[in-house]
């Protein structure tokens, strides 16, 4: 196992119930894991805990051989070696594609930085766009820039917080197919949260169904998606796209 999350608990201040309740999960190196659940199920909270943006009440998170947090230890976000791709991509509008990618490599030697930027630009198939600004790129291209920026520092783990939510349906289908190929080519271990069953089915090696902070089921896409009806009933939401209510 590469990622090991053990007995994780978390509650927001003034909340009555736990947002994450006794969460346990193991992920193999290079595996793409999708956390599937409706809005309020705890998906984004889980990512924030893994990234170090929140501190759990109890529990342990291991990435590789490194302990990120436990009852005795808490590693700050910038020291975890974990990358994150946000819903809105968070690109700097005043920076070119190339400059956006370089931003995550500020401490790298100049020569190594140039080599790495070229590598990730080639990986996401954006060669020739280096000098363009975000507003000159399509939504799909912007997402690939965000992915390239996250991949550039060679993170141990890459987290995705519903990165397809701002794309139209046709582009969403195309991008999620491209994303799986890119992640598998890079060999990076990834966690992807979504409320969309189609995204989960297309991307994941492993799917975790989350409801009210608790794991309801874990399995391969083939196991989880025996029938749409079964999945939606277990989630207690509408099929295909989970309710945002």
Automatic annotation (TrEMBL):
Membrane-spanning intervals of the chain: none
One Gene Ontology term of the molecular function aspect: ATP binding
ATP-binding as UniProt keyword: yes
CDD domains with a match to the protein in the record: ABC_Carb_Solutes_like
Pfam families referenced in this protein's UniProt entry, alphabetically: ABC_tran
Alphabetical keyword list: ATP-binding, Cell membrane, Ion transport, Iron, Iron transport, Membrane, Nucleotide-binding, Transport
Limits of the ABC transporter domain: 3-237
Keyword Membrane: yes
PANTHER family according to UniProt: SPERMIDINE/PUTRESCINE IMPORT ATP-BINDING PROTEIN POTA, SPERMIDINE_PUTRESCINE IMPORT ATP-BINDING PROTEIN POTA
Name used for this protein in its record: ABC transporter ATP-binding protein
Higher taxonomy: Bacteria, Bacillati, Bacillota, Bacilli, Bacillales
